[in-house]
Amino acid sequence: MGLLNFKKREAPQQTGSGHIPAFLQDYSIEVMPRTAEKVEDFRALLPEGTRVYIAHIDGTPIEDMVATAKRLNADGFKVMPHFPARIIKDRATLADWIARYQGEADVRQALLLAGGVSQPHGNFHSSMQLMETGLFDAAGFERLHVAGHPEGNRDIDLDGTDTNVMDALRWKQAFSERTDAQMALATQFAFDAGPIIAWADRLRAEGIALPVHIGIAGPAKLQTLIKFAIACGVGPSLKVLQKRAMDVSKLLLPYEPTEVLSQLAAHKAAHPDFNIESVHFFPLGGIKTCAEWAIANGGAAARPAAAQG
Fold first, then answer.
1. Rounded to whole angstroms, how far apart are CA atoms 107 and 78?
2. What is the pLDDT of the chain when averaged over all its residues?
3. What's the domain of life for this entry (predicted)?
4. What span, in angstroms and rounded, lies between the C-alpha atoms of 244 and 309?
5. 0.70 exceeded by the pTM?
């Protein structure tokens, strides 16, 4: 597969854009409390029952996280808050967060990840430690997602290999076989379909059968994408964006994920057992912009205003 080339919409017809609507079914999207505050009514933007992840950035009060979860749950969405291990002080804090989410927002799903801080705030440094507490099983969580990294993770494998990442994924695969909760990999965003497909196929070859929810950056300005790519440590994809930034004719054009999704959707259509199960949007250019793009490209529409109670 070639690198994302940011062609106009008519070009991807040859790479499978007709398959995008099916690929966008049951997509999920990520918000933060501060970005959610800017959305007047999620029901006017997202299909009923959409899974909405709530990113927990270091320094965000748990009260803000729970309030956002409560609002989204009341609006009829599946709420999946992040539990970043490195910002959770201890087992008691973890138990308190779980109790708050369940008691106030009926949360039954969670994304477990190490988190973006370099030094743990307390006893936890990995998602595996969170799972080992048994607290999510005891609380009856129905779904647990863990992080995936199609382009590798230098925080885990300092030498640039994927040895430690793959060992961790094998552990999580084994855990999925002994828990009642459904599990999946929710990945960092990437822009190049070829390496994504190769990574997903590698997982299958290694006996890792967890379904993949592939991270995709929603429509955004190029400068915005570059900023987030640097902050998130997206390596190969950052090179794609930097190459585009050198082309003055394209510098001011907004990015849309049509090409990468066309290629992934076409591959899924040709290989039904492909382990990428759904799309997870990072709305880097805004939640409204991302939701409208998804609808315009075949994703399910939001509920009509008259049906929103």
1. 8
2. 86
3. Bacteria
4. 45
5. yes
